[in-house]
Design a protein that fits this description.
The chain is of the alpha/beta class and about 325 residues long. It is built from seven helices and twelve strands. It has two domains: about 55-120, Ubiquitin-like (UB roll) (Roll), CATH 3.10.20.310; about 125-305, no CATH class. Helix 4 (about 180-195) links the parallel strand 7 and strand 8. The protein is elongated and about 130 Å long.
Length: about 325
């Protein structure tokens, strides 16, 4: 230890001042650390005690009650507002209550949760057995199973004997591993229908992806073959049908657009859509046309009729 003398008094005083400054700094740091710890503890207490779910508000389709939606969500009052798994809650609602779509959950501080569920778009009635239909949305989520098609939906047929289904889940068309070719074909056809803006399609058959056909207005079979050039084919069919409608809205028949460059219409003696489907099924099973319609004769009929002004046939 340096003894204080007149010669080193100034040095000793400087050292004492530096030591005192260090002590004050240590005390200040200790106080700051204590304050930070207290603030953290307070924040944790507030986080867990204050931000708890007290109110759950529901906006959902009328077919479900608010209590049903809350129950299927798994949300409970008293749980922390920020530590709740809202993604799982949304998935659970859409699965357990199929007519709820695009479910979103938002938080409103300090203690409210809002569940918003849009009504599902009832789009397809898919044949899954004799007299059995899977009612689905546009993404093929099964909304329910019914004995009749849902009003305003498009009837879809495609390998119904291979379908397994589960309400609230996506409907598969085949049991084949990997991508579902039937569903891919349906998706391409549906997209082409939407983009072509044709209206009145009531039935889509995608059992054979190379021999797809549609039924328009319950009276006209549209044969499009494969999904190649689907938009061009369906747009062409729509224009040809519009021409037919200007002449007769009661004409039954077949519209062939398999070549995509032209539409050939041949009148048929049908009475309703069931007869169209039955006629088509019987023709495919037989592998030939009815006796009075050989391929050569029908081709000649189409060509001749397309040149007449009667409107019984059109060619584009």
């Amino acid at each position: 230890m340096l003894r204080e003398t007149p010669d080193n008094a100034e040095i000793i005083a400087g050292r004492r001042a530096a030591a005192a400054k260090k002590r004050r700094l240590r005390k200040a740091l200790v106080r700051i650390a204590v304050l930070v710890i207290c603030l953290i503890i307070a924040a944790v207490v507030i986080f867990f005690a204050l931000f708890r779910i007290k109110t759950i508000t529901v906006k959902a389709p009328d077919r479900y009650t608010s209590a049903q939606v809350v129950e299927k969500s798994g949300l409970e009052t008293g749980k922390n507002l920020f530590l709740t798994d809202y993604d799982s809650a949304c998935e659970s609602i859409e699965k357990m209550l199929p007519y709820c779509d695009n479910v979103k959950i938002t938080k409103k501080l300090p203690s409210t949760v809002v569940i918003n569920a849009a009504p599902a778009n009832v789009t397809y009635s898919v044949i899954i057995g004799k007299g059995v239909f899977a009612i689905t949305n546009e993404d093929m989520k099964v909304l329910e199973v019914a004995g009749t098609p849902a009003e305003g939906t498009v009837i879809v047929e495609g390998h119904s004997d291979a379908i397994s289904y589960e309400t609230g889940s996506e409907l598969p068309f085949t049991d084949e591993p990997g991508d579902d070719p039937v569903k891919q074909a349906l998706s391409q056809v549906s997209q082409a229908i939407a983009e072509s803006e044709i209206t009145g399609i009531e039935y889509i058959n995608v059992e054979d992806k190379n021999n797809i056909y549609l039924i328009y207005d319950g009276r006209i079979i549209i044969r499009m073959g494969s999904t190649s050039d689907a938009l061009q084919k369906i747009t062409l069919a729509g224009k040809a049908i519009a021409e037919e409608n200007r002449l007769s809205s009661a004409q039954y028949g077949e519209m062939d657009v398999t070549q995509a460059e032209k539409a050939v219409f041949a009148p048929k003696d049908y009475k309703n859509m069931d007869e169209l489907v039955a006629y088509n099924s019987n023709t495919e099973e037989a592998g030939e046309l009815p006796e009075d319609e050989s391929p050569e004769e029908e081709g000649e009929e189409n060509e001749e009729e397309s040149e007449e002004d009667t409107g019984e046939a059109s060619e584009e």
